Each structure stands twice: as C-alpha cells, then as structure tokens.
Amino acid sequence: MSLLRRFGGDHPYLTAFTIFELAFLILPSVIILVVSLGSGEIISFPPTALSLKWYASLLAQPQYVQPFLNSVIVATFCTAISIPIGIVTALGLNRYDIRFEDGIQIYLLLPFTVPLVVSGFIFLIIFGRLGWIGHLWAVGLGLTIINIPFMIWSVASSVNAFDPTLEDAARSLGAEEIQTFLKVTLPSLMPGVISGALLMFMLALNEFIVSLIITVTDTETLPVAIYGAIRGNISPQIAAVSSVYVLVAIVAIVVADRLVGLERFLHT
C-alpha cells in the first residue's frame, strides 16, 4: 500500500489499474517483437538465442513482400482519396443546410453498427457484378468506404474549432475564394487532415476481414497473407512479419507527434 501511495499519490488504486491496463495492451506487442528475434525454427518465449535472420529472410519471401506492397498501395490509395472527401464533407456539414444531412449522419455511424463481415460480402456482390474483383484499386475503394467516417470526424473537429472570421478578414483584404481556402482555411484544418490521413492509412493497412473477402491471390494484402501462413505453420518468421505492424504503428505515432502533437491527435 505504501508503494502504491508513493507512485500513485492520492489515487493509488487508479494508478495501479492504469499501469495494469497499459501493460495488458503493450505486452502482446512486446512478446511478438521478442519472439521474432529468436534463432530457433520454432516459436519459443523467451527465445534461447537472439538473431535477426528471420527479418533478413523476409526480403527473399515473395509470399510476404508482394502482399506488403499491396497493403501499402491500398492504404496509400485509401488515404489519397479520403482527404478531399473528408475536407469537403466536413465543411459542407458544418456550413450548409444539406437536404440529406440526417442520412449522412447515420452513415457516419456505420463503422460501429454494421459488422465488417457484412460489409465485405456486400462489396463482394457489388464488385463481382461490376467485374472489379481482382483489381487492387477496388480493395482500396472498399476500405475507403468503410473507414471514411473516421476521416470526416477528424477533419470536422478542426472545422468546428475554426474561426470563420479569419476567412472574412482575408476576403476583405481582396483574397479570392480559392486563395482564402488555400491560404487560410486549409492550413487551419491541417491538424485534423493529418490526423485523419494517418488514421486512414493505418486502418487500411491493418484491415483483415473485408480484405479477406474481396481479395484474390494477386491482390492479397499482408494481413490475409499472415492469416494463410498461420493456418499451416507458426514460425518465428511469421512473428517477424507481424512485428512489421508494430514498427509501422510506432512510426505513425512518432509522425503524429511531430506533425500534430499527440494530445491534439488523440482529441481528433
């Protein structure tokens, strides 16, 4: 109890619970990273010896390299088309009386109400009818549709905090609409845009269920490739592949902190 009070101040039990929760969230990632450094042919924790050979072997494994490239392409496509959609939609909902605004608000709740497996089968039917199955851009389009609400929410937080009198001041000084948008409005919205873009990229990179349903061999993404691999044999190489996501997540957090600030990122 004295130790809890020493580190927890007036709320020792809350501090202890917070530490336990953080450890619970971080421990799986730490285990994956440690296991991936094992030198043996089978997974063991803790590893008997440390080695980077499983990371080195990944570059010679096309069953992982190509799905990883597919995931990056899909995530980039998803992010690129979500940015203008998020900006336009957030500004429109904030500034204009849109006839179908209630319908759009309902759509923004779909990520929490419609199971991803249902969305995946809907895309499978529609894309199959249109002949889009087998195209990588179609995978990106599907992931954009299910994740775009997160982008809109992120930009909307910056739109709601934006002072419209800044635009009035710019126009009163002779700036045209496009100049006002590019030099006043858009820079003010950039924290929300950057946060939303990072979020969209990570969500698309990590998406498994929808990707599993609408991808084929040529468009297989890394999460689907990992799933196929663990059904056969679980080796430290799979742990090395999985740790790529941990490293990407760490990089994304660092980028968000540098560009926006973690506190602002979490609030968006």
From TrEMBL:
Coiled coil: none annotated. The keyword DNA-binding does not apply. The keyword Transmembrane applies. Its main location: membrane. Residues 68-256 form the ABC transmembrane type-1 domain. GO terms for cellular component: plasma membrane. The chain crosses the membrane at residues 12-37, 68-94, 106-126, 132-153, 193-214, 234-256. It is a multi-pass membrane protein. Keywords: Cell inner membrane, Cell membrane, Membrane, Transmembrane, Transmembrane helix, Transport. InterPro entries: MetI-like, MetI-like_sf. GO terms for biological process: transmembrane transport. It is found in: Cell inner membrane; Cell membrane. CDD domains: TM_PBP2. Belongs to the binding-protein-dependent transport system permease family. PANTHER family: INNER MEMBRANE ABC TRANSPORTER PERMEASE PROTEIN YDCV (PTHR43357:SF4). This is ABC transporter permease.
